[in-house]
Amino acid sequence: MTRYLGVDAISIALAVSLFGMVAAVLGVRRNSDRLIQASFAAMYTTFALLTVATVAMVYGLVTHDFSISYVSQVGSRSTPLFYTVISLWGALEGSILFWAWVLAMYGAAVVWLNRRHPGPLIPYTAATMLAVSIFFGILLRGPANPFREVFPVPLDGPGPNPLLQNHPLMGVHPPLLYLGYVGLTVPFAFAVGASLSGQLGSSEWLRLSRRWTLVSWMFLTAAIIAGMWWSYEVLGWGGYWAWDPVENASFMPWLTATAFLHSAILQERRGMLKLWNLNLIVATFVLTILGTFLTRSGVLSSVHAFTTGTIGYYFLAFIAVVILFAFALVAGNTESLRTRGNLDAVLSRDTIFLLNNLFLTAFTFTVLLGTLYPLVAEAIRGVKVSVGAPFFNKMTLPLCASLLFLMGVGPALPWRRATTEQAKRKLTLPTISAVVVAIISIALGTRAPYAVLAFAFGAFALTANLGEYALAVNARRRTHPESYLLALARLIRGNQRRYGGYLAHIGVVITAVAIAASSAFRSEYDATVRPGQVMNAGSFDVRLDQLWARDEPHRTVVGATLTILRGGQPVGEMQPRTNFYASQEDPVPTPAVRSRPAGDLYINLMAFAEDGSSATLRVIVEPLVPWIWFGGGVICMGALVSMLPGARRRREAEMPQLEEVPEYAA
Amino acid sequence: MNWKRASIAAAAGVPLIALLGFGLTRDPKVIPSPLPGREAPDFALRVFAPGDTASAPDATTASALADTIRLAALRGEVVVLNFWASWCAGCGVEHQALVSVARRYEGQGVRFVGVLYNDTLEPALRWIRRMGGQNYPSLQDDGSRTAIDYGLYGVPETFIIGPDGRVAYKHAGPVTEQLLIEKIEALRSAGTAPAAGS
Amino acid sequence: MTMRTPATGRPERTGLSSGLGWIGRALLLIVLVTSVVMLCAPRAQGQDAAVSPPGTNPELDAQVRKLSAELRCPVCQGLSLADSPSELSQEMKSVVRAQLAAGKSPDEVKAYFVGRYGEWILLEPKARGWNVLVYALPLLLVLAGLAGVFFLARRWTLAGAGSRE
């Protein structure tokens, strides 16, 4: 019953999307408002139908309807309800369904919010969103059909992948990732829409694209941070970023989207970089699809890779279409978009934005090259090589340092033109703080050069961005009799985009410094101890009190109860565990993490004697790690401040309507 | 739209697509070993299961039977070196194939040797009994030194070493009778001539 | 166009190099000093207490740590021996330690593992042959980009100055 509901909803959604796409194109060509309205309705209907299919799947999971192939694949009667619900995105087919649903949601939102927008831009944009929806619809009816019938109906299933049912962050990270990833389809759709309607030169679509990019960017940032946190809490090696292909896949579009968020401002202000911005939007979308291809097709090995099947070939076909189309789109419009750049002075925020784009692009390219190089090497040399953390760390460090530096210089310089006097005045304090921090950190024994650089340039950027707040608040208080807090609030409200941006910078600095510190000062201690014995871990001592085991419906848990001592005094208890799932040979660890502002104490139960006589522990002291997550939160806050409706919206409303560019069929 | 430019640019995307398509045909989990064609790393390991043809080995006598097998001493014979563990599912799958091919070539200059990987003796001996015995000796590899010497990725993995002491073939995952016979025959028909790496 | 700056009252010259003086020098100094520190300082990293003979030989510990961070764990995906909690990695790490203790150079130890596992075991491809590409291309991109930005910024500055008069 549920199965048919799901299958039919998907089939109808596919047909409706197809109809909507055709209706949108024909509607513009024939200038028929009814057809255009029909295409909008098709977008809403697609969303409604995919909602039905998604709800049907969740219902099937919750009711353990094992006649549905996906449920029989990831469901189990013993899995707790929460993990049963979130196993919707725990394996290939379900995640494709979820993806399609999010995509339809974005499509419906874009159409709804812009339904009164005149001209062919929105219909063409809707047609593009529907075209992408059609691809996912085909996947859902073909190789990734989650609603296939299973007969005879099994009594129980294996349950979700143990790695994915071990931490509540699995309920947070994937939806955020999809919201971010899929949302980046919207700017691309606007770009295609603008191209088809001959409006690429106008600033209208760019403004819309930037706003939607910002929304997706915020989700993607949150998703990346949540993913780091998840792997830190679950994988048991005490790290949060391994330059795994899947991690890179989420990081690359983030980098290009970050570049676009900056360079779009240059286009808005100066009308320059039109072609470059189109490039960035297209690259961002291509990178999301490329990333999906890499993770869903099993081309590159990865911890997170889904199981494979024929779906790889469907994705290859889709990605081929997207790449060919996207490259053609950019190249075919080069002439109409060629803009004469103009700058008032080399020393200006404008130039810093150009450099920012250069380094972000180089960063993306480095990550892309490193990720794909194993394939290249195999193709041309026939040898399997690895490109891992040492490579990426070494190659991206100078880029990170440069970006931190620019993040300090940019806000300090005014638009258009800065005088050296201005620059000196604004950069004095940041430079002093950078020098002081560098000296202090070297004096305190920091030997890792990347850490010194990160701290120094981090201090530089932090001071510069905080300085912008401080200067503006003080200036405001000179003219308005306000408290500091009120002045700050009004200041932000007066220019949300700018001050949200600075806030995001501050978040990036916090995260970068925390990452540098946690890798430079990380220390590891391994020992095998008997109950009652104490092992030393730097300023901590860890006493094994007891080893225990307990049976849960879906797993067996072995844990160690530890007392943490500091200077001989107990300061807390920790319980690292190892979980044995029936469906998997290797146990899944649940390390214990004790978080304090100064850093984490991270303990993993590596091995234990079956009679409970000893346990092997790895204790890792990880300074400042909680600040990585906190910094991520600050970045998202910054994005939120920038995009919430406020003063800017009002100002825009007062702006005269942009003139319509005469339309011609492309 | 400038269609000429557009099609040139689109053509530039073809290599990338080709690369991804190439990637689809490769399995990232299969990593070729550099060992075939090279001298097989020597080892001298203690026997923990002597591997009698007639009866299953007895756990109580295992330590008494402890003996050492040295690869260099088997020069001149074809050696089938199989890494296994009692916790490994694939090892149960291939066990029958190994045992029956070992029986087929008994006394014909083909030696089968098992090496236990990351396991303890007690469950390993229990496993042999459960599988109905093993008609060739199994060795214990403390600290996995031999496994690392052979570049082991997991179990089961099987190496076939020619009479010249060079690794002729490596197989990851369960082996089949057919595969073993084919590789052994190739080495035997090559006679004493140096085996080519496969 | 001439824009008078409040501070000097004379038209400003464009150009990043002109007279940011000590600020630029200070930041450059940080980079230089850290590079010197990197090159000269003996690589004693924190208080590493490494595995087998715990902390008996901090120099060897540091070497083992560094080397095993560059070797890939065969049974995990993408993790180094240093990071991997797997048993095989632990054993491989003690092979690294044993070989280093026996006087082998880090390169010889790497060569041993490459001989057994193939180039795949190196987390950082050797900069030789085709592999040079993966190091050189990003560098070239940055250099070309810097040159491009500099060139464009100059041209656009002139264009901007010309068009707005």
Ends distance of chain B: 54 Å
Count all strands of chain B and give the number.
7
Average pLDDT of chain B works out at: 84
Order of helices and strands of chain B: HEEEHEHEHEEH
Rg of chain B (CA only): 22 Å
Helix content of chain A: 55-70%
**Biggest sheet statistics of chain A:** 6 strands, antiparallel
Task: Assign the structural class of chain A, choosing from mainly alpha, mainly beta, alpha/beta, alpha+beta, or little secondary structure.
Answer: alpha+beta
Chains forming the largest contact: A-C, 87 and 81 residues
* Overall shape of chain B: elongated
- The count of DSSP E runs of length 2 or more, i.e. the number of strands of chain A, is 10
In percent terms, what proportion of residues of chain A is strand?
5-15%
Protein traits:
heterotrimer; A: 666 residues; alpha+beta; 6-stranded antiparallel sheet; globular; disordered C terminus; C: 165 residues; mainly alpha; 5 helices; elongated
Quick recap:
The complex is a heterotrimer of chains A (666), B (198) and C (165). Chain A is α+β, with helices and mostly antiparallel strands and 666 residues long.
Overall description:
- The complex is a heterotrimer of chains A (666), B (198) and C (165).
- With 666 residues, chain A is of the alpha+beta class.
- Chain A has 21 helices and 10 strands.
- In chain A, helix 10 runs antiparallel to helix 11.
- Chain B has a 7-stranded mixed sheet with strand order 2-1-5-4-3-6-7.
- In chain B, a hairpin with a 5-residue loop joins strand 6 (157-161) and strand 7.
- The radius of gyration of chain B is 22 Å and the shape is elongated.
- Chain C has 5 helices and no strands.
- Chains in contact: A-B, A-C, B-C.
- Chains A and C meet through helix 14, helix 15, helix 16, helix 17 and strand 1 of A and helix 1 and helix 5 of C.
